[in-house]
Amino acid sequence: MTSHAVDAHGLVKRYGSTTALGGVDVTVPTGTITAILGPNGAGKTTTVRILTTLTEADEGRAVVAGFDVRTHAHEVRRRIGLTAQDATIDPILTGRENLVLVGELHQLPRREAKARATQLLRQFSLEDAADRVASGYSGGMRRRLDLAATLVAHPQVLFLDEPTTGLDPRARNDLWEVLERLVDDGTTILLTTQYLEEADRLARDILVVDHGAIIAQGDARSLKRQVGGDSIGLVVSDASRLDEAVAILARAAGSDPSVDSGARRATAATQDGTRSLAVAASALAEAGIDVDDLGVHQPTLDEVFLTLTGMPIDPDDEVTDAPQEVLS
């Protein structure tokens, strides 16, 4: 493995008159999580399909796990795992049988396939349900089993296409913890998501995609700074002291606050939220001004996406980024 588990440049994919990707670059450092963030129809799934050899790009080049996806597709497939948007487990088999079957399909001896299945069932907290048919699993359990199946052959690079879509918050959080442990153990992950919290929590690098193009890239902190950095907000207990508090906040933040007199609130942008907050808190205490609320607000990735594209991400949007017959 090189320093980059995924290294792709200039990926272009067209479906008739529709351009699903318009020249996308993706690099994923080995042993990290990179997220491709965007709404349905942005080009996320098309990117994953190209990188996993399921679709050929019309233009551009991609190297995954050290091999070109076009000229050495078989070598790429031997080194990757893919969890698609829909679970691919067999509902009439038990959890254990599903994993043993996948192991045998990877040409593992049956004894080794059984041992690997037992290991993964334990790793994904599915031991108690191991011998129940998968059709009786909850959505979170099915998703964990599906992810376990992609790990049977010890892939170097794991591609997850919207892995937590449809899961409840608890199941989503459980799966996030699993992914974090995988990276701690050396797995490289590229995931696509519509969930801003997911990208914020998991990814070292985030690619924001819209209409087949990358419109921003960076870690969560740097992306949030694109919408103006932190802000400090306060609510005074006594409305008659609001003007004094506004003056203090302006000096601490280094910018003119916006004021809502009716709510006794003032908010000011700042380049250093923690330092400015400490300065404001000290000055307010020294002046004897009581506050009901005082804190730093960091922009959310939702605000980043809204600023960059003019519209929020809608996880309930049903539009895909490629014709259905191509995705099936």
Care to give the gist of this entry?
One of its GO terms (molecular function) is ATP hydrolysis activity. 37% of the residues lie in helices and 27% in strands.
Helices and strands in order:
Layout: E1 4-15, E2 18-29, E3 33-37, H1 44-51, E4 59-64, E5 67-68, H2 73-79, E6 80-83, H3 95-105, H4 110-123, H5 139-150, E7 157-161, H6 169-184, E8 188-193, H7 196-202, E9 205-210, E10 213-218, H8 220-225, E11 230-236, H9 242-253, E12 258-260, E13 265-270, H10 273-287, E14 291-297, H11 301-309, H12 324-327
Parallel strand pairs: 3-8, 3-9, 6-7, 7-8
Antiparallel strand pairs: 1-2, 1-4, 4-5, 9-10, 11-13, 11-14, 12-13
Helix pairs in contact: 3-4, 3-5, 5-6, 9-10
Helix/strand order, N-terminal first? EEEHEEHEHHHEHEHEEHEHEEHEHH
Let me know the CATH homologous superfamily of the largest domain. P-loop containing nucleotide triphosphate hydrolases
Which segments are poorly predicted (pLDDT under 50) over 5 or more consecutive residues? 323-328
Strand content: 25-35%
Whole-number total of structural domains: 2
Could you say which structural class the secondary elements and strand pairing correspond to? alpha/beta
End-to-end separation:
31 Å
Main beta-sheet strand count, sense and barrel state: 6 strands, mixed
Mean pLDDT, all residues? 88
Tell me how many strands there are: 14
The number of helices is: 12
Stated plainly, the CATH topology of the largest domain is called Rossmann fold
Q: What is the CATH first-level class name of the largest domain?
A: Alpha Beta
- What value does the Rg take, in angstroms? 24 Å
Q: What global shape is seen?
A: elongated
By oligomeric state, this entry counts as single chain
What is the annotated CATH architecture of the largest domain? 3-Layer(aba) Sandwich
